Amino acid sequence: MFMPTPYNNRDQGRIKELRHLIYEYDYAYYVLDQPLIADFEYDQLFKELEDLERKYPALITPQSPTQRVGSAPLKTFAKLQHKVPLRSLNNAFDRNELEHFDQRNKERLDLSKICYVAEPKLDGLAVNLCYQNGILTQGATRGDGQVGEDITHNIRTIPTIPLQLRGRNVPNILEVRGEVYMPKVAFYQLNQESKLKGEKPFVNPRNAAAGSVRQLDSKITATRSLAIFCYGIGEVGQGNIPTSQNRVLMQLKEWGFPISPYSQLVCDMDECWAYLEKLSGLRSQLPYEIDGVVFKVDDLTQQNSLGFTARAPRWAIAYKFPAQEVSTQVLAIEVQVGRTGMLTPVARLDPILVGGVVIRNATLHNESEVQRKDIRIGDRVLVRRAGDVIPEVISVILESRPENSTPFVMPQCCPVCNSEVVKDQENTIARCSGGLYCPAQRKGMIKHFVSRKAMNICGLGERIIAQLVESDLVKDPADLYQLTIEKLSTLEGIGEKRATQIVSAIEQSKKTTFARFLYAIGIREVGETTAQLLAREFGSLTALMASDEEQLQKIPEIGSVVAFHIVVFFRQNHNCEVIYKLQEEGVFWAEDGIYKEEDSHHLPLLNQIFVFTGTLAAMTRNQAKEKIQTLGGRVNSHISSKTNYVVVGTQPGSTLNKAQNLGIAILDESQFQGLLD
Prior knowledge:
By secondary structure, the chain is α+β, with helices and mostly antiparallel strands. Helices cover 37% and strands 21% of the residues.
């Protein structure tokens, strides 16, 4: 029978002392970049701690510096839900786009100057670290931004990630965001080892870092010399967080997280551009790969006011450095149809290595772009990875053009469903008009159709919709109403109880309103407010389907673009057939006078125009905008004589003076809330 070695107080005290010393030396080395002792001395202390822990295994804790060697291999990764989503960043590729980002923020905040925190954009893997009472408990990949993979066992092996936070005022729950990367030297050594073993080398440090972090065997991860720079926070429990991005970075550093030594506060576009030029010049000298610079609004209150789009924060942008250019041949030009119906020409290329990645395809964006560059099949072209990521064709090498080449022409009918292809007013973007029918748009169309503001069918999430479409159970929205408990039960992860709930929700959705139905069928440019206007003006679907562009434009809020898309939508036989099928399946709504009475009750702010200035305390501008739109109103960024109300928060800008001069009604936040109520 195994008997643990009894430990004495002296050895127990020495273990605590060694751990504390190693924590401090690690902090000085990895975070402050100021080594306090020689490597040999550090190794001797570390070995002494290992020997003592081997002698007294009962005293080993998960937070000990020795516990970074990895654990038993996993069979698969579990999924972890991020408490606060990890969103992507919008990109800028030139100074005009960067200045437009700055100007847009100034207009939204009604300010003349905004300060930003600038940081190198590492070419690595985004991760989320969760600490409870200062102890590392979970690590996850970014995943889709909502759900990531549980890589805790691998994260613990990275020496620059603190297992236990230092200092005071650590929140009881803290999510920290960072970028795991592989230094250039470590990448080179790893590929040399792979070649000696006859294994396939990694194409670039980012792939090497991502592959290392996602090893099922964390002992392999521990050998890969990974590191991290942290750049932000997610969920925060009890505790105070600084009020600016720059101070957040300083606080992270005090807690023991490595941050970029090149982060800097910049307060105008000239300073931003000077920072970009400095980093661009340093790029080749840095010990790790970067592909650009990230700019974030420094003031967290201003960040909150700016809010988010569906995929990215409005208060941050990634400026991407230009990439290497190479030449190759265009083998073919194919047209792809996206989930929103947009037609995109794609060049099929003779495979070529660009920036460490083999490129076989490159987007040609749209017909106008192809014509402007005059790209043809058989041409020899210059290719680069825009922002080091997206392959694009820069120009044609005309001297190498084949004699029999012909210009590219966008098809007039959808290559997937043969519906009419329509173009926007600028004649640049082409779209398939068969929205309810086109297989390429099917998943996106169904997702929109069942959404809360459309038909409001609960229980049909993105994963289930994908299964329904891929199994051919649903080819158009009308097929939803033919789903049974038996059919749904055949899908992965759906039992009889859930299937019953979904079928019940589908049945309940049959009784709707004309406006909801119009919004649900996904006519381009017809949002909630426009759908409500059309329902009120026409009263019946038959009358709307029979209308022409001239008749539609008699409605003050309906312009030529919206009228065009409505007429084209109902001109497609495929769309009309799906609408008739929906009615045959029992979808109905009250029309004429009954609908108008309901409409007047729900749209008390119809056509009223609002402008905001200053910061609201009880809600963000996005939340306020949604409330106004729900009640039929509109929000503009600039004041004019047509503005009905100016809502004033704290620290208002010049908009307030303009409103007073124009005699426009001014509401403080409490009056605005009263109006909403």
